[in-house]
Design a protein that fits this description.
single chain; alpha/beta; 5-stranded parallel β-sheet; 8 helices; 19% strand
């Protein structure tokens, strides 16, 4: 039997989340049925649309599912929190991870905006979106291949930067290791980096920052 963490919201400020990809159909059905019966807000991650078929129809009707991010929200959203997060996706291929971050923030009650296709291959597109990026309290940068956008953004925006390397790429960039190493080796000061394709983790880090720091900091 799955023992859900019903004290997580009190302890760390975020409700329970379930990683669905690592669970069998029968395990997932039992877990989601149990969570649905409690009414506890829960975020379901790595849940592609085809796996909804293993759940009962009654539960599926309760899930707000997004096929792009492969996330499901069960039990409703959290109350609104102060602060705004901008999510910069280098290319359209990074959209799944960027949308996962956006959905996690939406679930957590944080205002988020996704800006897609502003990578270093077209710096004029990034330049045009700088006013929106600089208005955010935190910027999540989602980028594959060489993940150069992480360093570029770190030199242009004063808000905290959370880099998310993605597995988008081929050749030496296949699987995201090159993007991860590039982001970790960034010469931009104070850039934080999460694991490959971890839009969920980046969003949770942003929620923690907003909870601790508030939104009254000054930006240069």
């Amino acid at each position: 039997m799955h023992v859900h963490d019903d004290r997580r919201l009190d302890r760390i400020g975020m409700p329970e989340a379930v990683l669905c990809s690592a669970k069998s159909d029968s395990q997932l059905r039992v877990i989601v049925d149990e969570l649905a019966s409690t009414g506890q807000p829960t975020l379901l991650t790595r849940l592609p649309a085809e796996r909804l078929g293993c759940l009962s129809s009654e539960v599926v009707e309760q899930i707000d599912h997004d096929p792009i991010s492969e996330t499901g929200i069960l039990g409703g959203m959290q109350s609104s929190r102060p602060g705004k997060v901008a999510i910069a996706a280098a290319g359209t291929s990074d959209q799944r991870v960027a949308t996962e971050a956006a959905r996690t923030l939406e679930f957590s009650g944080v205002d988020a905006e996704v800006l897609v296709d502003i990578g270093v291959a077209g710096l004029w597109r990034l330049e045009a979106r700088l006013p929106e990026l600089r208005a955010a309290d935190i910027v999540i940068v989602v980028a594959g291949m060489d993940a150069a956008l992480v360093s570029v953004m770190g030199g242009l925006v004063g808000a905290p930067i959370i880099g998310v390397p993605t597995s988008v790429g081929y050749g030496v960039a296949e699987g995201g290791s090159t993007a991860l190493n590039s982001a970790l080796a960034s010469c931009a000061q104070g850039v934080a980096v999460v694991n490959i394709d971890n839009g969920f983790g980046a969003a949770c880090a942003a929620v923690r920052m907003l909870s601790l720091l508030g939104t009254d900091r000054s930006r240069s």
